[in-house]
Design brief:
By secondary structure, this protein is an alpha/beta fold. The chain has 2 domains: 7-211 and 399-420, Rossmann fold (3-Layer(aba) Sandwich); 214-394, Glycogen Phosphorylase B (Rossmann fold), CATH 3.40.50.2000. Helices cover 45% and strands 14% of the residues. The chain has helices spanning 23-38, 50-53, 72-75, 78-89, 95-114, 120-123, 153-156, 163-179, 188-198, 224-230, 250-262, 279-290, 305-313, 329-336, 349-353, 365-377, 379-394, 399-415; strands spanning 7-11, 43-49, 64-70, 128-131, 145-149, 182-185, 205-207, 237-241, 270-274, 297-301, 317-320, 341-344, 358-360. The strands form 2 sheets. Strands 3-2-1-4-5-6-7 form a 7-stranded parallel beta sheet, sandwiched between helices. Strands 10-9-8-11-12-13 form a 6-stranded parallel beta sheet, with helices on both faces. Helix 9 links the parallel strand 6 (182-185) and strand 7. Helix 11 (250-262) packs across helix 16 (365-377). The longest helix has 20 residues, at 95-114. The two termini are 39 Å apart. Residues 75-79 have low confidence and may be disordered.
């Protein structure tokens, strides 16, 4: 019989309110709910910060509890002042100096977050530390650690990040490679990237897919109030469910959508771009207006799950032109809801779609435009994609299976507790 840990500590301090963590937050919340049900003999302690502590209260169970380790006082004191200083000083420094200053800032920030908790895991009698957002901030010698690798976008598209952000992301990834007992990757693409860039021993990193397709199914609620509020009509809009990060490629999508509008796309078809609001959304709204598309591109902001379900299931199709995905959860969510998908043909997306989506090169606007026109007008193709997508989504529908795979990985990490092979990084060639 599998030996399961008594106490698993989970680092949720990176969790932010709302949708700013993207799919990573959706994944870990569903995983934790399943873990608490499957392994009721294990105590799960969730490390939180003050800004999201209350939001996570729904996870409380007899065997799962929250522990705030970053309080309001610490978060509102030195760290914000460091951030404000960095925003003023760093842009004026050479990139090489910015990386060095960032490294120092990262160490200071980590020290602030850890505070005096250098023995936290020992005090909690932890059998395992799990880091679903990669960085093993609270790792301690002698306590097995498992980290999840979502993507290494900063390696492929460093220009999408400030130099100090690249340095911080790389530091988090390489620290996980050095300190974790085992790694989980959300796709084979992410696994192969981690092996390549982190010199990881392939035996110490396992692909565990995000099996979350059931989160968005066909909605039964009346969509009229929501759609009326947004100026939409059932079946007469496309949707791009993505935060407004640069790699999501909204600028190219808007260019392609404008081309499609000029080349035969029905005049009543709109494009809906959901995502957490912020400065970049405002900039994109202005860009859409400058392109003459203000009346055809809708920005509803962050949509709660029940409204998102309605918005997705009453759309004509999902268009997903991302330049980089470690997994691509919205693609599977759309397929599970019976919605046809057109998506990028790069990074993890061909692996996840596996023939059940209309693929295009996201760097070529004419290909995106053709995909938009085709999936909007060709009802036979849309029906074929919907059917194929439903079959494909079934492969990602069992979140219980995902949780069991993580429990098995936790068990494997614990078995290596006293072995010198605890560290997964292979020797650099």
């Amino acid at each position: 019989m599998q030996k399961l840990p008594r106490t698993v500590v989970v680092d949720l301090t990176p969790v932010l309110p709302g949708g700013e963590n993207g799919g990573a937050k959706i994944f870990v919340l569903e995983l934790l709910a399943q873990l608490s049900q499957l392994d009721q003999q294990t105590r799960f302690i969730l490390l939180t910060q003050h800004t999201s502590h209350d939001e996570l209260a729904f996870l409380d169970r007899p065997n799962m509890e929250r522990l705030m380790v970053i309080g309001a006082t610490a978060a509102q004191s030195m760290r914000p002042r460091l951030v404000r200083l960095a925003l003023k000083v760093l842009p004026h420094l050479p990139n090489r100096v910015r990386r060095r200053v960032s490294a120092l800032g990262h160490r200071i920030n980590s020290a602030i977050k850890r505070g005096s908790s250098t023995t936290l895991l020992g005090d909690l009698q932890a059998d395992l530390l799990y880091c679903p957002f990669t960085a093993p901030l609270y790792a301690q010698p002698g306590v097995p650690t498992v980290c999840t690798i979502h993507d290494l976008q900063y390696k492929t598209h460093p220009g999408f990040f400030e130099p100090e952000d690249v340095a911080n992301r790389d530091r988090a990834f390489m620290t996980a490679c050095k300190q974790a007992t085992m790694l989980a990757a959300v796709s084979n693409y992410s696994r192969n990237s981690a092996i390549l860039h982190g010199h990881v021993d392939p035996e110490h990193i396992r692909t565990i897919y995000l099996r979350l397709a059931e989160r968005v199914q066909k909605a039964e609620d009346d969509p009229v109030p929501l759609l009326s509020r947004l100026g939409l009509t059932t079946g007469h809009y496309l949707i791009y469910p993505a935060n407004f990060w640069r790699h999501k490629n909204h600028e190219m999508l808007f260019t392609a959508f404008g081309m499609a509008c000029a080349n035969g796309l029905a005049t009543d078809i709109k494009m809906v771009c959901t995502g957490a609001p912020g400065a970049r959304q405002i900039w994109l709204e202005q860009a859409a207006a400058a392109m003459g598309l203000a009346d055809r591109i809708v920005f509803p902001g962050f949509i709660p799950t029940h409204e998102f379900r309605m918005l997705m299931t009453h759309s004509r199709a999902v268009i997903f032109p991302s330049l980089y995905e470690g997994f691509g959860l919205p693609v599977i969510e759309a397929m599970a809801a019976g919605i046809p998908v057109a998506c990028s043909n790069i990074t993890s997306l061909p692996e996840i779609a596996d023939g059940a989506a209309l693929l295009f090169d996201p760097r070529i606007p004419s290909q995106i435009a053709n995909a938009i026109i085709t999936i909007s007008a060709d009802s036979a193709l849309s029906a074929q994609l919907s059917q194929a997508g439903s079959v494909r989504a079934a492969e990602f529908a069992d979140s219980r299976r995902m949780a069991l795979e993580y429990l098995d990985l936790f068990d494997q990490a614990i078995r290596h507790r006293t072995k010198s092979s605890d560290y997964i990084q292979a020797k650099t060639p």
